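STRUCTURE:
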């Protein structure tokens, strides 16, 4: 996980603009070579390459997430189909049917609330 906070896209564009202005200064010769145009250009190139790589990886991540969602739905459909097959082969009151997370027919309760007597209609 990244520990350093990223620059916002606006701030990154602003910093690249400053670098462009620096390149346009004639006779710029820093005392420390780490601040030379070539050194800074290498950093800018690395940032741009990183952004391209990030975009590629984000697209791949979206593909993988879509594939996982598709396969998850397919698994649910296959499991539902197998429940129908087990019910046909062993019956919906079998332990096999129950082992698939379903309720056996004999264990299905009726409405536990007592029935209210029908209202008496008077003419």
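SEQUENCE:
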């Amino acid at each position: 996980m990244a520990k350093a906070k990223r620059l916002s896209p606006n701030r990154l564009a602003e910093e690249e603009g400053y670098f462009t202005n620096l390149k346009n200064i004639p006779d710029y010769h820093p005392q420390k070579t780490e601040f030379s145009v070539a050194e800074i250009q290498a950093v800018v190139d690395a940032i741009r390459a990183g952004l391209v790589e990030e975009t590629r990886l984000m697209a791949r991540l979206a593909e993988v997430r879509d594939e996982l969602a598709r396969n998850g739905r397919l698994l649910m459909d296959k499991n539902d189909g197998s429940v129908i097959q087990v019910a046909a082969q062993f019956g919906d009151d079998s332990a096999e049917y129950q082992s698939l997370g379903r309720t056996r027919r004999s264990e299905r309760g009726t409405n536990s609330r007592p029935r209210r007597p029908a209202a008496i209609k008077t003419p």
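REMARK: The CA atoms of residues 95 and 104 lie 8 Å apart.
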